[in-house]
Structures are given as C-alpha cells and as structure tokens.
Amino acid sequence: MLRNAAILTMVAGLIATVALPAYGAWRPAEEAMTLQQVSAGDAQSLLVASDTTSTTLTRDSYAATTAEEIDKKKAADAAAAAAAARARMGGNVASIPVNINLVSPGSGEVRWPILNFTLGRGLWDSGYHQGVDLLAPAMTPIYAAAAGVVSVSQESYGGYGVAISIDHVIGGQRVNTLYGHMTYGTRQVVAGQTVSAGQLIGFVGSTGSSTANHVHFEVHINGSVVDPWAWLQANAG
Description:
Layout: H1 2-25, H2 35-41, H3 67-88, E1 118-119, E2 132-135, E3 141-143, E4 148-154, E5 162-170, E6 173-182, E7 194-195, E8 200-203, E9 214-221, E10 224-226, H4 228-235
Antiparallel strand pairs: 1-2, 2-9, 3-8, 4-5, 4-7, 5-6, 6-9, 9-10
C-alpha cells in the first residue's frame, strides 16, 4: 500500500513538471483589434523644422495671354525703348531745341518729307525695298509730304519700327505715304488725325530693321508701289 502511494506521488510530480511549461506558454486569446487601434499604440510623431514662407503670386509671375495684356506689354516695351533712346542722347526728347511748329518749306501740294539729307538706297535696291532711304542725323524733323489723314501711327510697326502712314487724295488719285524708323517717343500725330502738307510728324531715328539713322519713305498710288524718289522730284516744291 505504501509502495502504491509512493508511485502515485511520483507520477503526479512528473505530470506537474511537464504541464507547467505548457501552461506558462499559453495565454488567453486577445480581443480582435483594428489596424488603426494597433498603430495608435505605436504611433510616432515627426516634427520638421521649415524655413518655408508663404508667397503671394503677382501678375508679374506669369506671361501675358490675352490680346489686351499683349498690347499693354508691347506699349510697355516701347516706352522702355524710348527711355533708353532718350538716355543715349543724354536727355529727354523734349529738351532738344527743335521748333515743333516748323514746316517743310514750299507752297506746293507736295513737300519734301525731310531736309538736308543724303540719298541712300532706292526702290528695289539691295533686294526687296519698296521705298527710298533718306539719311540724316537722329532727331532731324520729318514732315508730311502732303495733306491727308493719318492711317497709322505706331511705336512698333513691323520692320519699320516707329512709323507713320498717311492717306492723301492728290490729283484725283489715292496716294499713301509711309515714314519709317523714327526715334521712339517722337511721333507728333495720331491715327485719324488730319494733317497739312509739310506739317511736322516726327523725328529721324533708327528703329525697327535699321542700322543707321534715316527715314524710309514710301509712296503708293491707287494701291501700287511707285518710285518715291522720282515722285518727289516730279512733284515736291
């Protein structure tokens, strides 16, 4: 009997020895958790120092896109070019001693558009050239060759640069005269304005497609190009 009790005690000890590690490894099932709940406990904070400051966008930060903005941009560019031209001449155009009431001498219906000039390229000389170049120093006065109405007066008129165009009726014919490459900011007339023969309209320059101071003078009769030098010699006086 005593022997049996001893055996039972030994068996019970063995069972306890084997069971305890297994019990220690077992733990009750945890409640189900969402990914947000899991991450909440292990969440990390990141603090980043930044020197970035807020920036206010202005109209200067993008290009002009509308027709109105493009026109304003062209006007601003022309004004800047005029200022640069005045600076190169050492002062404002208005400070140059010129009698703005001066008119081209003569009494005829057609007048010389410029006085004291050197004859340059003529009609069709050196390639496609629809006028005559009359060379003179910068700021030499330019006059309307005849009475008429100004059709163009622009600071930037294609390759003509600062230019003026006038429509006339002479001898029953439609005549148009054009004066190109004037100095920036020196136009004395505007589109739609009526001018008289010999009236001051601007001053010699070298704007647009030009490499020297001169006035590029063109004459068109009934829409056709004519030799302006021959026309002046035959009619101006």
